[in-house]
């Protein structure tokens, strides 16, 4: 009996040991499985993180692309086939050109912009990219006669964007359409001034010889959003200098005058184009200083050679024949509107 019990106990012992062994192996195995699972999970997380890092910028790109597909364009008028014009704007991605592009697009015309992007910027017209009425071509129109030839071939009317610089340092004040100007042909400003004068000459010669319809707009000092910050003109210089707390650089005594025109006023077409509200450069410097509220002093530098001393457009003819006058910086509203316009540029630069 004792022997039987001992045998049973022994068996039980063996069984218990076997069970304990199995439990031990199972727990070791369980730990091993857990460990390898957590290693795997860790690895997966790391991998997921890496994939996410690679994918995130792609996802942003896709979102941008989707946005551009569903892009909302500025409101465009509907024009019938008969009234809708096909218009080519050379330099249409530049400062003035892009505002003209906006106006003509919103008026419902088909606009093709050709620009070599030397000074023009794609972002100035990017809000039209993809619109069915809009085309953007990167091309250098080196030869104005090419454009005149094109105008002749397709029977188009040609508008030349000329400048008040064709009057040089004027001896007639204010300057009207009939004044021939007073330009130093070998001075530092000559290339620009004479370049525009010869462009006018060629357009008129082409009109006489080939019967191409030509218009010339002599644009006076223009400012507004999309102006180049570093082109050295007085509006950009003063606004930037004031924003950076630097002295405002006035060339000469500052008694020379200009009549500044807000860019959108230019687009109502009439030669010459400008705001007949005349200010001295010193007044203008004080105005900017006051607006920006900077501590920058006014610094007088030496006078620029051949700098026109007085400039202001005579807009009587445009008013009489075309009913045109600047609407934003209108005469009579003096400083309030004028300040608002300068402020627009200031906020544009701040952006
Ligand atoms: O930092 C400056 C810059 C300019 N000026 C003065 O401010 C006046 C205006 O100078 P800008 O260079 O802005 O403009 P300008 O009138 O000389 O020429 C302008 O005229 C008509 C446009 O067609 C031309 O593109 C533009 O250059 C000038 O008397 C100039 O000497 C300063 O006193 N300080």
TrEMBL record:
Pathway assignment reads: Nucleotide-sugar biosynthesis; UDP-alpha-D-xylose biosynthesis; UDP-alpha-D-xylose from UDP-alpha-D-glucuronate: step 1/1
The Gene Ontology biological process annotation of the record reads: D-xylose metabolic process
Alphabetized Pfam families for the sequence: Epimerase, UXS1_N
Subcellular localization, as worded in the UniProt entry: Golgi apparatus, Golgi stack membrane
| Record-level Gene Ontology MF annotations | NAD+ binding; UDP-glucuronate decarboxylase activity
Q: Which GO terms describe its cellular component?
A: Golgi cisterna membrane
Q: Which cofactor does it need?
A: NAD(+)
Judging by the UniProt lineage, the source's domain of life is Eukaryota
The EC designation for this entry is: 4.1.1.35
Catalysed reaction, written as an equation:
UDP-alpha-D-glucuronate + H(+) = UDP-alpha-D-xylose + CO2
How does the entry describe its membrane topology?
Single-pass type II membrane protein
Domain named UDP-glucuronate decarboxylase N-terminal is located at: 2-74
Q: Where is the NAD-dependent epimerase/dehydratase domain?
A: 87-127, 135-263
Question: Which keywords does UniProt give here?
Answer: Decarboxylase, Glycoprotein, Golgi apparatus, Lyase, Membrane, NAD, Signal-anchor, Transmembrane, Transmembrane helix
The similarity annotation says:
Belongs to the NAD(P)-dependent epimerase/dehydratase family. UDP-glucuronic acid decarboxylase subfamily.
Q: State what protein this is by name.
A: UDP-glucuronic acid decarboxylase 1
Give the taxonomic lineage as stored in the record.
Answer: Eukaryota, Metazoa, Chordata, Craniata, Vertebrata
